[in-house]
Amino acid sequence: MLAALSGCSSPGGAPEPGVIDCDRFRLVVLNGLSVANPDYRPHWEYQHRKPACGPEVSPFHRSVPIGLAPRSLGTARIVSDPPMWADEIGQSADGELALPRLGEWGMSAVIRSLGIPGSPGEQDTVTTLSGVRDDFTVQAVVELRSPLPEAGIADLWATPEVLFFSPAGPGKPLGWDWDSPGLNCDGLRGFGFCEGGRSATSAFRIWVSLLTEGDAPALEQIGLDLDELRRRADAGMIHGFVMSNLPGQVARVSRDPRVASVTVIDMVPWVAG
């Protein structure tokens, strides 16, 4: 999938309108792709080098490695494309951005309906789980009746996989990984964030605070709106999350009065760690 994005500096050194500096390529585009596609899990270990920027990089003027896979327990079936792990985001010298093609799968449809009243596809969780053996691990999307701050989510479920900082809109809800919410002093996300506590909200807010109006054209090509990102980061309210655990724990969460729906996405036999 190709999308237009401003290129590097012009030959004379003056930036083109809307140009994103090479040092910002990882910060804006890599994080933006992850935020816009929370149904895919980023594998940050693929981000082991800074994005190159120069004519010697072929076929792209600059590129950054990315690892992505469906956010499943391992049994996802991609409708249009096969599962993808290692890939890259590239930008040609004429300003074209090459993004990985991310196929739709089971979680994609569910999160696209997050917060939409009467949306199809919501399942009766208790019925869905009634025939599941106790030694299986179940993955589910949890939709809240009303948004909660991160502290409220921790009270409901301590270890979500990803938090949704918005309901669904024209695209998917905005997501931020709880698995690696910050704590990356090595700057793999394009910014260093070291803090004693785990806080996806703090990491999301810091990332948004680093975005400028010059980043807006790139974000738009990924499916993100800068003003919307700022509103959601400022509010810091979470509309749902993804969890994985034994069937009894998923059923317990589904009975909480703060929960609107729990939709089972995947299940696999439980394996002791």
Descriptive notes:
By secondary structure, the chain is α+β, with helices and mostly antiparallel strands. It has two domains: 2-98, no CATH class; 106-269, no CATH class. Helix content is 25%, strand content 23%. It is built from eight helices and eleven strands. Strand 5 (86-91) and strand 6 form a beta hairpin. Helix 5 packs antiparallel against helix 7 (226-235). The longest helix is centred in the N-terminal third of the chain and has 12 residues, at 25-36.
Task: Describe the protein's topology.
Layout: E1 2-4, H1 25-36, E2 40-42, E3 52-53, E4 62-70, E5 86-91, E6 96-98, H2 106-112, H3 125-129, E7 136-148, H4 150-156, E8 162-164, E9 175-177, H5 200-210, H6 216-222, H7 226-235, E10 238-245, H8 247-254, E11 259-269
Antiparallel strand pairs: 1-6, 2-4, 3-4, 4-5, 5-6, 7-10, 7-11, 8-9, 8-10
Q: What integer value in Å does the Rg equal?
A: 19 Å
Shape: globular
Through-space gap between termini: 38 Å
- Quaternary organisation of the protein chains: single chain
Percent helix, as a range, is: 10-25%
The residue-averaged pLDDT reads 79
How many β-strands, per DSSP? 11
Largest beta-sheet characterization: 6 strands, antiparallel
Q: Which class of secondary structure composition applies to the elements?
A: alpha+beta
Number of domains: 2
Provide the succession of SSEs. Answer: EHEEEEEHHEHEEHHHEHE
Approximate strand percentage: 15-25%
SS summary, helix count: 8
Low-confidence stretches: 1-19
